[in-house]
Design a protein that fits this description.
This protein is an all-alpha fold and 442 residues long. The protein has one domain: Growth Hormone, Chain: A. The protein is built from 18 helices and no strands.
Length: 442
Amino acid sequence: MKARTSNLVWLAVIVAIGLNLRPLLTSISPLMGVILSATGLSFRGASMLSGLPVVAMGVCAFGASALSRAIGDARGVALGLVAIVAACAGRLFAGDAAALVASAAVAGTGVAVIQALLPGVMKTRFAARLPFAMGLYSASIMAGGGLGASITPGVAARASWQTGLAIWALPALVALTVWLMLTRADALPRAPSARRATPAPSLFLNRRAWSLGIFFGLVNGGYTSLVAWLPAYYQQLGRSVSDSGALLAMLTVFQAASALLLPMAASHFGRGKDRRPWLALGLVAQLGGFALLLGAPLAAPVAAVALLGAGLGGVFALTLVLTLDHADDPALAARLVAFVQGVGFVIAAVAPVVAGIVRDLSGGFSMSWMMLAASLVAMIALNLAFAPKTYARAMSSPDDIQRPAARRALSGLRGTRRIRRADRSFATRDTGGGNDRRSPLP
């Protein structure tokens, strides 16, 4: 297979996989009212259906590197797709809350493995066009979320709510099939690692890794909260189930477009690897969207979801690119992405749960939107720390930082010793008689 054709096929299969990473979340929200009445769940309990997969995405991401070393990236991604197929298919027989929660945990585990392993594959295979590849992958994730929100209500209306949730096993099965065919025909390349001879630094002790994880968590906290509660918010304001599902679908359309376009714009018009101005642009757009949700939710719903979707999609994709920018070594970059997603998705899982609790206590979502707007202000401040000149030092282990200083100190000590030896040698020659110079003065 020619290199160009091979890359196009790889991108197409990665898009097919990305389309299956969000319907398990977004298919729940439009049917929330039906699920609540059928299972007896409260708003707080129902938030687990969106929150638990995100927790699994975070917790299981920490073990993705070990899984990759044990069975390889190709088999790891295939195993993740098998988990999604099994979880979605199992929802066809889910008649109670426990079965739904169990399916959410299994699906979230599969998504965690895929999300942790695929960015490292893209870093190796598309190093020269990483922003485009990552943008396309992120756009496919967002598009899959939109499909889940828009198609599920129609299927549920014609069959049952269980069928509306279970139908997403079919595209996941297709993605699994094409992935297995591709990896057999065109095996994954081995990523050259510059650090095989030295032990890998611990990311748990790296402040920049934690900063990126917190940033990524706040990004996804806004997404998971909107996926879980935006349709319920508009249904509370009098909109129908189909109308509120359409708004969520529109949100994900704007997410997908921005996830593709904003990284490309940052790559073509930005200054090198400085992603901060473009990240700030996406964060400000989200602030505007939350302001409309609070001030004019019925007067400008399309404008609100456009700003929110564009901001969320672009910042999500750029944060992944920013994380990969921190390491030239693909192996370290893959570990860093897995760590950042592990921290980030654990944080993101808390947001919809908190929003559900606040809704139960206050009877509305205004306080939740204000909480998310405050987190955006914090992200704008944190974004200032991600200057490209800090990447190398931020990802260096303490030994890497101390070793050059020790070398400089040792070099200085050796230089001082040489000077002292030269002084003693000169003094010996000056007083030894043969080569001494006598003063012309008496």
